[in-house]
Amino acid sequence: MGGFDSHRVYAKVIKVLVVDDEFLVREFLSDILLATEKYQVISADNGQTALDLCRQDAGIGLIVSDMNMPVKDGLSMIKDLRGAGMDMPIVVMSGNNEIAIAIAALNSGANDYLIKDENIQDTVVLAVEKALEKKRIEDDNRQLQELQKRFLVELDGMVHELETVVERMTVLGTALSSERHSNRLAEVIISHAVHLSGADYGLLWMMEKDKLVCTGLQALSLGVSKYNAEGIGMENLAVSQLHPVALAALNKQPAQVPDIAEQPGIDMTLVRRLDAAAGLNGRSMYLVPMLHHGHDLMGVIQLVNTLDADTGRIRQINLKRKGILESLALQAALAIRNQKLFHEMENLFEAVVQVMASAIDEKSPVTKGHISRVAQIAVELAQEVNAANEGAFVETRFTEDELDEIRIAALLHDVGKITTPEHILEKGTKLEKLLDRLELIEERFRYVGAALTAQCMAEKIRLMEEGAPEAAVAGLDEKLRQQLRELQDDIGIIRAANNPEEFMSDEKLARLQQVYAKRISLNGDETRLLTDDEFTNLSIRRGSITPAELAIMRNHVEVTIRLLNQIPFTEKLKNVPIYAGGHHEKLNGQGYPQKLAESQLPLQTRIVAIADLFEALTASDRPYKKSMPLAKAMSIMESAVENEEIDRNLFELFKKQKLHERLSGRGQHP
Length: 670
Ligand SMILES: [Fe+2]
Ligand SMILES: [Fe+2]
Fold this sequence. Notes:
The protein is built from 23 helices and 15 strands. The chain is an alpha/beta fold. The chain has four domains: 7-142, Rossmann fold (3-Layer(aba) Sandwich), CATH 3.40.50.2300; 179-342, GAF domain (Beta-Lactamase, 2-Layer Sandwich); 364-420 and 548-666, Hypothetical protein af1432 (Orthogonal Bundle); 438-544. The longest helix has 59 residues, at 120-178. The radius of gyration is 53 Å and the shape is rod-shaped. The N and C termini lie far apart (127 Å). One fe (ii) ion (FE2) binds next to helix 11.
């Protein structure tokens, strides 16, 4: 009889397979096991049948097997079972004289062995129970190990995720605290929010006055990101409108909208109109208001998911990180608030600088516009340095902040002129103080002429009364005519000398000296035609400024340095006093006020110096000269380069980029 001969099925938990080639032994063992009422028993008469049964029935929980059997013996069966990955406990039975076989069976994967003796009735039950208990413990252990392994993998994943979030929050924190540029701030906030929430897209709404303005958009699924309101082109929202963003702003509470189409109290036409403007199609959303101090609304972060393209289901925002998103909103609110304060301070500072610059410009109508033009020229020259792709400046690039530092330095370069007396700033002629003193001198000359005439008349009357000869009287007339002629000549000399464009040659100076030395006797008093100060001023060889006035004029740079050093400039503007205070320094060390050497003059200072010189030369409204032809101005600058007063490379760039043609037309002059 082949195969298995009994299928006794009981509602027992564990199925035991008894393998023995002797029918009686199989029956005997089956009965013993069934009697415990713990087992369901099936049997097989050789190793091969047992193997086949095990392959068909995964429910066999234990095997009790003989060793010596036909077809396939116990040892070979054990090897095949273990080879096939089957791990049920196997208890082998052997005779007293077959211990070696039993040991071989244990080595091949059997779990226990029994000696077929008179005690088998008891030992088989014990052996089966022990083997099953051991298997249970092993299974439990394995399960525990697997659980532990799974837990460790999960833990690893969680730690990794936590690390990513912490890293992202750290980057965010740093970026938020340092970002001063509103577009970049919008980018930092919205890109972190989108990545942390895993949303399809995110929108950043900022509270501006009483409207919510969309200033940031990142649509991952569309590959679109925009960080300025104009580019996004969404209409602004009032908090009273029936839009989820406005409602979240009004309630100042985070809000989850699982499906916008089913959300009550929403104006769907408005929602769709706004979505369409940005090319979006949102379904579920999560809204986080950004509140400063818990109540001051800075804006709203809107995170949106669209439909899942594959399943057609609405994908929900990952709210596992709700807490993190809310903390992001908190940090964002603080950053936006700081940025607003920073911009307000910057605007305030800019306004103060502009007021100071225009105060100087306004102070003297004759130099009006100088400051703003110098700032313009300096910035354009610095931009040309940045654009240079060959030559000396190919590797020089000013940052936006550095360009601004140059602009502020140029706007403040002459701030010291606030203390320069106006009559020196505006001195148009040599005699000018608060008024042109030529008029006083002319008045004096008229008085002297009239007094001489009156004196002559009185003399004539006296001579006639004394009966003096006619010739003597006529002599008086001739003398008066002579004196009046000389006065005419003298005032002519003075008028000519008062013109600052007139160069005072030695000859002219000698003639002026004669006028100055002249004493006219009037009614017994010696009268002078010129005071000492008038003579000093008229003696100026070139221009209208006396050496003393020149010193006062030049003093403006020292005042500029002194004033600017009192301003606690921010880090990015800390060099303003250096760049502004050096605008009259020269590379050859002959400038003023500090006679700085070339090595002490940064490029920025040289830029301001060139801008100042060019503006001064080409301005048409200087008191002591007419608008200088551009060619002449350029040739003066050319000689300033030759004399090592201004930077050659900068001037070459200035010429090459034709800044003189572009910039000279900006003033009041042609
Ligand atoms: Fe100056
Ligand atoms: Fe200047």
